[in-house]
Specification:
Bound molecules: zinc ion
Shape: flat
Strand content: 15-25%
Oligomer: single chain
CATH topology of the largest domain: Arc Repressor Mutant, subunit A
Length: 134
């Protein structure tokens, strides 16, 4: 019985990782549950949420607030990146790490600090939305 439960939880984690390995995948816990459901009809939301928690704790995936009302999960992966999120239309722009890296380097040097943030989310208004506001 114990073995069966272990198999079950590890396959849920496996499917979550497969889902998040898609290009630019950023999904909320609810979206992940909805997408796993067809492949694991017997899965319940709390199993998915627990698996997400475990993967986050072990550092395989990261969770961030993208201002959409629900936390969003994604692979940590080998290419750190960051985002600009428009508070008007919620459009998300992905920034390459090299744009932000000089700031991180400067902060680490100046404060003798080892930063572990690998996913920065900055909020603002895109060009379209800011021109509408004027
Ligand atoms: Zn991201
Ligand atoms: Zn906008």
């Amino acid at each position: 019985m114990f073995w069966v439960l272990m198999m079950k939880s590890s396959s849920v984690q496996q499917l979550i990782l497969e889902l998040l390995q898609q290009e630019h995948a950023h999904f909320s816990a609810h979206e992940i549950y909805t997408q796993l459901k067809p492949r694991l009809p017997s899965v319940n939301p709390s199993t998915v949420y627990r698996a997400l928690e475990r993967l986050t704790t072990s550092g395989e995936i990261s969770v961030s607030d993208m201002g959409t009302g629900a936390a969003v999960y994604e692979m940590v992966g080998s290419s750190p990146h960051h985002h600009l999120v428009c508070q008007g239309c919620h459009r998300v722009i992905t920034l390459e790490n090299k744009i932000v890296q000089p700031l991180f380097d400067e902060l680490e040097k100046r404060f003798n600090y080892q930063l572990t943030t690998n996913h920065l989310v900055l909020f603002g208004y895109c060009q379209e939305c800011s021109s509408k506001k004027d």
